[in-house]
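Fold this sequence, please.
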Amino acid sequence: MRDHGAVTSPTPGPRTPALSAPRLIATDLDGTLLRDDKTVSPRTVAALAAAEEAGIEVFFVTGRPARWMDVVADHVHGHGLAICGNGAAVVDLHGGPGQHRFVKIRELTVPDTLEVVRILRAAAPGTSFAVERTGGLHHEPAYPPLHLDPAKSVAPAEKLLAESTESAESTESGEHAEGSAADQPILKLLAYHPELGPDAFLTLARRAVGDLAAITRSSPSALLEISARTVSKASTLELCCQERGISPAEVVAFGDMPNDMEMLAWAGASYAMGNAHPDVLTAATGVTATNNEDGVARVIEELLAARATA
């Protein structure tokens, strides 16, 4: 299922949930569920399994692309659905590493991507870009090696996207081979600046781009993540909850960076990690321990203990 993010932005949910009886746990990965060494602690694995035994659904909600979800592949169990790319895709992880299946895709269109590139080139000279598609990453020559895997192709962003447009036209006439990069939806545009501070770059980009696209960040560097205008972790989580008849008041969410803020504000109960970006504290209803201190597991344990005594 593909769409262009044409849904309304989520509205904040009630902030007085029955904490002893949540129906869904939504957790970020890096800096939240994962320790700094990118492992899932035994305590956290046990807490996730206990939550599912109690009938609570677990969603991983991350900025990572689907192919980087191997880090939690051994701990999928029942919670096999993940929201990836900051809400650009819902992925079924049950097939194991490399076998994920896209359930929902909320793509960024080529014309909007080209316009954002044009705007940011003018507003922040020196910006380099990468294009994240369902099949992999494509980036410019100046874009630094910030990711876990090599690029599928390297060229100026305008050329990458112009080729996509040309290929799409060829596809319509039957001249283009199915399965190439041009057939793959754009999940995110990534923009990196070598000199600006991360928050300064985010502020500048949001002001310049306006409501043409959604811009956030999760990296400690000046790397921005750009999605279709109404796409966020929160809006896609809201869609998934609506499909299940789950209200915001029945959701507990965890996060640590600006790309988590809308989700934390939407969920009935939400927790900023002890290591969270200062702005994240304003969106959450509570604070837990750091990711290295198993902050997510601690809250889950408390919720399950409260349910047992209710």
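The first strand starts at residue 2 and ends at 3. Residues 48 and 58 are 7 Å apart (CA to CA).
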